[in-house]
């Protein structure tokens, strides 16, 4: 796959408050990375045929999209991005698909997600989940629950880490982010006993202790390998015996950004990542294992 000749941040906008939060984050990211910014709006062809048989004029939707992007471009310029580094695109198609395609030549894709309550949290947001499951670069998801006004000023980047070699790519990106910002990197390993069989039996205490020790050693090995490559990054490793969603959501209140690896699977985004997406108090950086292996 060809890589971009220049650094590029892509942000999806739709005229909503969610899109505005994503835009502000994306502009800051482009400035920090000295990258170009591509502001994208997708005219969802699924809404052309509305309720009660109403058929919407795609030309009007296209014009509305152009207006949304025009406003976003002005915001980006007002925040200090030079005009020649701000680009635009209005495309017809599913928003997740459009952003996934644009991710092929991007360093980051930034999307917004509204804050929801109750049962809505189970579904998070179709666009953010879809992009996270298919993007070819890391995806930054900015929720309405995120402390956007404080983002970048806490001086702390986090990553939820498993004792798995596949996690090394996301860990490397978290190190690079912490180094770029001059921030402390907090590595969170939340450990739970494995369950076995139909009745969720757990191994005996001696076996559990051995498993716990082995996993902690694997996490330390992954961290130490990259710590040597980034000696200027201060690293703290947090080992806890707790559910990863609860732990990561709690820690997110004190982080500028939380990195998570997205496992490949039937649903694309696993239960732990979905749980953190639904409740996180800071922006999330989601990266698929296949992306960091390319």
From TrEMBL:
UniProt-listed Gene3D superfamilies: HUPs
Residues in UspA domain copies: 7-142, 156-288
Xref: InterPro entries: Rossmann-like_a/b/a_fold, Universal_stress_UspA, UspA
Source organism, top-level taxon: Bacteria
Family label: Belongs to the universal stress protein A family.
Entry protein name: Universal stress protein
Organism: Auraticoccus cholistanensis
């Amino acid at each position: 796959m060809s890589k971009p000749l220049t650094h590029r941040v892509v942000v999806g906008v739709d005229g909503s408050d969610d899109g505005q939060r994503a835009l502000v984050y994306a502009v800051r990211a482009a400035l920090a990375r000295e990258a170009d910014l591509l502001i994208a709006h997708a005219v969802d062809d699924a809404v052309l045929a509305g309720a009660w048989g109403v058929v919407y004029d795609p030309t009007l939707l296209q014009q509305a999209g152009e207006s949304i992007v025009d406003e976003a471009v002005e915001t980006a310029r007002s925040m200090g991005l030079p005009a020649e580094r701000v680009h635009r695109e209005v495309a017809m198609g599913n928003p997740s698909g459009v952003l996934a395609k644009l991710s092929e030549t991007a360093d980051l894709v930034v999307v917004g997600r509204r804050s929801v309550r109750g049962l809505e949290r189970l579904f998070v947001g179709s666009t953010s989940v879809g992009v996270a499951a298919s993007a070819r670069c890391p995806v930054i998801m900015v929720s309405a629950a995120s402390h956007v006004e404080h983002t970048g000023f806490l001086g702390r980047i986090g990553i939820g880490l498993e004792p798995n070699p596949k996690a090394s790519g996301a860990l490397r990106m978290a190190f690079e982010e912490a180094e770029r910002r001059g921030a402390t990197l907090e590595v969170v390993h939340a450990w739970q006993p494995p369950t076995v069989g139909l009745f969720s039996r757990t191994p005996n205490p001696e076996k559990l202790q051995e498993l716990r020790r082995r996993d902690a050693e694997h996490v330390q090995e992954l961290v130490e390998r990259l710590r040597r490559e980034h000696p200027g990054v201060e690293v703290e490793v947090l080992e806890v015996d707790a559910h990863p969603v609860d732990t990561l959501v709690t820690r997110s209140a004190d982080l500028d950004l939380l990195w998570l690896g997205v496992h490949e699977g039937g649903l694309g985004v696993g239960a732990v990542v979905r749980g953190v997406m639904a409740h996180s108090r800071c922006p999330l950086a989601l990266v698929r294992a296949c992306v960091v292996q390319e």
